[in-house]
Known about the structure:
four-stranded antiparallel sheet, 10 helices, 9 strands, 53% helix
Amino acid sequence: MKKIIPLLLVGLAACVAPMFAAAPGHAEIVDRIVAVVNDEIITMSELDQMSKMVQASAGVKPKSKESQALKREMLEALIDKKLAKGEAKRRGINISDKEVDQALEEFKKRNRLPDDAALNQALAKSGITLKELRQQVADQIQQERLVFMALGAKKTEIPEAEVRKFYEMHVKESGGGNQVHLQIVTMPFPPDASAGQKEEIKNKAEAVLKDYRLGGSLPETLRKHSLSAQDLGFINQADLAPQLAELIGKLRPGEVAPIQTPEGFQLVVLLKKRTGKPRSFEEVAPEIRNLLSSQALQKQFVEWVKTLRGKAHIKIML
């Protein structure tokens, strides 16, 4: 079901790199400022990291013009994020480690990640660390509190007819299609990997694929290469990215599809196929209602952030 099932790896995190490296008698610029928001800065490294993660999640690298447009869009999002965080700080909205821990436990349950090791392996696909995910989660909780505090906002009551319309268009229509049971083996590049290191990971992926196709069982093959697979369970094929859905559609149960992303290599194993049955309206209605309510609240937040922009000092140097 599109837009309701939790995405396995959804997360955009940004990290500010040091701006200057101190040295006797001079300073060497190691990063570039692309925007100033009041007394905060946004660096090119932040922007590059966010853009790279979006590309990794899409599984494709945009063309030059598309990449520039994506960077500008991501920069606008980072500016809004800086403005919101500044306002949250001014209002004394702080998020405790305990709250983040609880949210991460829910995240793992929703995404069928049994432990932190599985979570770290999944995060490696998007090129982010557990520390960065924790910050992303804390920022999200902080934003939600800011919305309620600043707007006095309450969750919008969604009419039954609107919930049912969404169900008919997005759940019932797509839920009866093919479902695939997938496992994913992730082999990420090391941070700042050299060409030699990337080639080493590529060779390892080819060796794993060769051993498996020569008749080795998946568990034996993975043990031999000190790897593990993440079980995604059954997923509606219509919910996959179009390129991946097309690739999976050509596989027979037991076959493997090798995929290269900007962050490394993946082996996607098709275990089973089956014809799916749509979830009942009664079962899924609360999820739809929460989704539509959150979307309405997000629209209010976006409009409110525009008022912050009007009062802020923003200088873009991209």
